[in-house]
Amino acid sequence: MELLELIKEKASEYKEEVISIRRYLHQNPELSFEEYNTSKYVCSKLDEIGIDYQSGVVNTGIVALIKGNNPSYKTVALRADLDALPITEENDIPYKSNNVGVMHACGHDVHTSSLLGVAKILTEIKDQFEGTVKLIFQPGEERLPGGASLMIKEGVLENPSPNTIIGQHVYPQLEVGKVGFKSGMYMASTDELFMTVKGKGGHAALPHLNVDPVLITAHILTSLQQIVSRMSHPTAPTVLSFGKIIGNGATNIIPDKVELEGTFRAMDEEWRTKAHIKMKKMAKTIAESMGGECEFKILKGYPFLVNDEATTNKAKLAAIDFLGKENVIDLDLRMTAEDFAYFSQMRPSCFYRLGIKNEEKKINSGLHTSTFNIDENALEIAIGLMAWITLNELKN
């Protein structure tokens, strides 16, 4: 039997087992850097498969090795993330989250269960490939500073050092049965913004006696959009958004301060640094000119994610072999962010997308929503395709 057909056969054989693993993980989600039970569960599955591993990396992370013939020939790393989000699930499903207020709303249960399925397939055929496959089960993707950066600091890219790194992520805009790729720049850097505008509160009917932080904030928010519309270069995509504003006054009360939280996304590191300086200076200057003050804190987050052209093209061709050309699409640039970006900055990488949508089953909710779910037929594709991409990457 040809290797491609063998991979497809094993993916079909293990589909139900991987669905069961995914449902267990979905029912028992844990927040970033708190994935202790998740980690123990993954270790138990690796024990069942018979794979050597190191647990306790960044507390809850796991690194495992599958050694084929001539293990030192080449190493390919595969990464999955373990953590869930602080969201209360609203799905009416048998495997609904048991942890109120915590939910796998970004598909990390899919990523982890898929990697376990890939591990099982590759372990069973390890006498048919040369090299080593490094499995990275990573904590804390959803929370700064990002588990990827911490695992790198603890040496995850050493002993052995991977030649390439592959990651997959669910994509609710894409129908089940399809996958997507994009070489080069793919996802943005991300920074968290925390701003406090201070004034002098008082009676809203006597504004001349106050320094209104609400009005100051309005001027700052409007002016800051110049960073995007007038200061960024057209070839450097930029997003600046504020999603949280708290001014605890009332209809007739001007508050003493307004607190804001937002995000800044970019795809150029030099521009990113300049924009940080411009935002702080603009906000503080406007506040001072209106009699107030502004504290502006920026937590620098993940870098931009870049897919290595050669690695991505090879993975895309493998996907065409596995699924057919009609089921492999080209992805657009995204201003969302992923801490896989740290890996992509360190080694040639490919981060691709797995279609999970099924309109007939009304499975179409976006990531980070309380009704997010997947068509579980995607899991057979997930494990088979990643195994096939890995084997192709090991060839040369």
SSE inventory with pairings:
Elements lengths: L2 H25 L8 H14 L2 E6 L3 E7 L7 E7 L26 H17 L7 E7 L8 H7 L10 E12 L3 E3 L2 E4 L1 E10 L3 E2 L9 H12 L1 H6 L6 E9 L6 E2 L2 E10 L2 H21 L3 E8 L4 E3 L1 H15 L4 E3 L9 H7 L2 E9 L20 H18 L1
Parallel strand pairs: 3-4, 3-5, 5-16, 6-15
Antiparallel strand pairs: 1-2, 2-4, 6-16, 7-14, 8-12, 8-13, 9-11, 10-12
Helix pairs in contact: 1-3, 1-10, 2-3, 3-10, 5-7, 8-10
- According to DSSP, the number of beta strands is 16
Strand content: 25-35%
CATH homologous superfamily heading of the largest domain: Zn peptidases
What is the name of the CATH class of the largest domain? Answer: Alpha Beta
How would you sum up this structure, described in words?
The chain contains ten helices and 16 strands. With 396 residues, it is α/β, with parallel strands linked by helices. It folds into two domains: 3-187 and 304-395, Zn peptidases (Aminopeptidase), CATH 3.40.630; 189-300, 2-Layer Sandwich (Alpha-Beta Plaits), CATH 3.30.70.360. An eight-stranded mixed β-sheet has the order 1-2-4-3-5-16-6-15, with helices on both faces. A hairpin with a 3-residue loop joins strand 1 (52-57) and strand 2 (61-67). Helix 1 packs across helix 10 (378-395) and helix 5 runs antiparallel to helix 7 (269-289). The model has no long low-confidence stretch (mean pLDDT 97).
